[in-house]
Structure formats: structure tokens, C-alpha cells
Amino acid sequence: MPVVTEGSIVAGIDGSRPARTAALWAADDASLRGLPLRLVHVYRVPVAKMSGVLPPEDAIRAGFARQGQEWVSQAREAILSRFPKLVVETAVREWSAVPALIQESTTATMVVLGSRGLGGFTGPLIGSTAVSLARDGHCPIVVARGRRPEDPLPEKGGIVVGTDGSPTSEAALGFGFDEARLRDTELIVVRTWSEVFDHGAIRPHFLDVDAARIESDERKSVEEQVAPWRDKYPEVPVQVVVRRGRPIRTLLEFGTRARLVVVGCRGRGGFEGMLLGSTSQALVAHAECPVAVIRPAEPIETDVDARS
């Protein structure tokens, strides 16, 4: 693996416009944080046994590497034209995308992906890549997207964080507060609730529940969770929203007016695979703004001071 600067923000580059847009988002974040940016292109030489028809494998490999280097160089040039003082590293690697990016995540502050690659794959493919990184990676994953794959990213709006009181949502809150501080905008903390389910478990008497009591309890819970973060980031204006409804639909709605939506990779229900395959995948595939999926450091800590 090429030598890297510890703590870089990594952006995946594949020559597509969404990847270039994501790289500019990553460059902006790196500039705000005072961190270097690392542009990474990963290619894989296809196995094709057609001797005499295709060029030699070494020639094909050299062509892939040359094309990748051209793409990262173009992206670097575009970034430095906007952020001339930013330190920008580049790497062209022969491997599969997911394991390569997981390895990159071991030393990265975050990994940023575009919403669609040159192959034209949207939705499930980018969702599976982000979900794989969220499950097995070692840092936050950001999918930089607008309303449509080719649209510019929103430059206005607050930072929205979905929270359920779990350790991963605690990590999401920390990331969200930091982004709101860096971008000088408000933080909108969203908690949803249901008469039928209580954080993944079916309520014992869901046909006879006190909706007002549930909402009051959830509001108290989220205010208690947010309180230490308010103390740590007194300059960040915070709006707490507690609403009956489904988290996916609610977060997608708030995402239409947001600059960034932040969620944890696993909730209190404990259904890791289900949540990574539904909530996170739905958001990275359909949100109208960038989405950050946060995986807390292990072992999981819940005390705010432990993260300071």
C-alpha cells in the first residue's frame, strides 16, 4: 500500500462527474479541518483468455494504471484551483474497490464516495459499497450526492442527525456537531417513534399505548443525549425534532432541506444487517444531499468526555 498521511480524508476517483463532485466536497471538508486530502483510484484487470485478440495482460494493466493516473491528476488539478493551499496526495491501486477502501479507512478521517460511477450504476450498487464500508470500515463514510446524480451538492441548509440513543447514534451526534461547527450552520437532531415498536422490539401492549407519553419520553431521552454535546459545542444552534413516523421517510424528508444527513451504522434494535441494508442504503441511494454513515471506534464508548 502506498505511503499515506495519517488522518487524511480519502476520496474515491473513477473518472465520473459524481466522483469529481464528491472529491470537491471532500476537499472542502479537508480544508475546513486542516487535513490533507487523498485521491484514490482503484482498478482491477479483468481476466480474459483471448490470446491473439486482446493485448498482453501487462499492456492492459499499464493502460488501466495510466487512465487512473490521468483521472486522479485531473481531479487534483481541479481541487487545487479552488483550494490552492490544500495538501493533496494521489494513489492508483490495483485491487477490488471495497477491500482497498476498507484498507484506506484504517488511517483515514473519513472516506468520501460519489453517488454514481462510470458504469452508470445507481442505488443498490453504491448502497452496497457504502454499506460494506460502514460495516467493515474504520472511519465515517460519506456519499456525496444531490437530488440527482449529476446535480450539484447543496451549499445551504443545516446538518441533520438521526438518533435513537444508541452508541452509534452518539458517534453520529459527535460527527454532526463537528460538521455544524465547521460549516457555521445549525444542527437538527431527529428522533422518530412508533406505537408498535420500541427501538426494534414490539411493544407488549401496542394496541393500548399513550402516544403523548411515548413522545414525551422520547423527547426527554433525546434532550438528555444532546445536552453534553450542547455544552461541548455552545456555538452550534440546535433544533430537536421528535416525530411519530418511520426513520427512513422522516430523514429523507429532512434531507430535502439539509446540507448533510448523518446516521449511525447500527441502531438500538441490534439488527445490524437489516439496518445497514435498509436505512443506510435507502439514504445513500435516495437522499437529496450528502449522507454520512458513522461507525464508532471500538470498543464503543458512550461518554462524551471519552471522545474529547
Describe the fold and architecture.
The structure is a single chain. This protein has 308 residues and is α/β, with parallel strands linked by helices. The chain has two domains: 136 residues, 3-Layer(aba) Sandwich (Rossmann fold), CATH 3.40.50.620; 150 residues, 3-Layer(aba) Sandwich (Rossmann fold). The protein has ten helices and twelve strands. Helix 3 packs parallel to helix 4, helix 4 crosses helix 9 and helix 7 runs parallel beside helix 9. 41% of the residues are buried.
Order of the strands making up the biggest sheet: 3-2-1-4-5-12-11-6-7-10
Order of helices and strands: EHEHEHEHEEHEEEHEHEHHEH
Rough shape?
A: elongated
Instruction: Round the Cα radius of gyration to an integer and report it.
Output: 21 Å
- Give the CA-CA distance, first to last residue: 31 Å
Q: What is the strand content?
A: 15-25%
Number of helices: 10
The CATH topology name of the largest domain reads Rossmann fold
Biggest β-sheet strands, sense, barrel:
10 strands, mixed
Please provide the count of β strands. Answer: 12
Protein name: Universal stress protein
Organism: Amycolatopsis azurea DSM 43854
Keywords: ATP-binding, Nucleotide-binding
Domain UspA: 9-145, 159-295
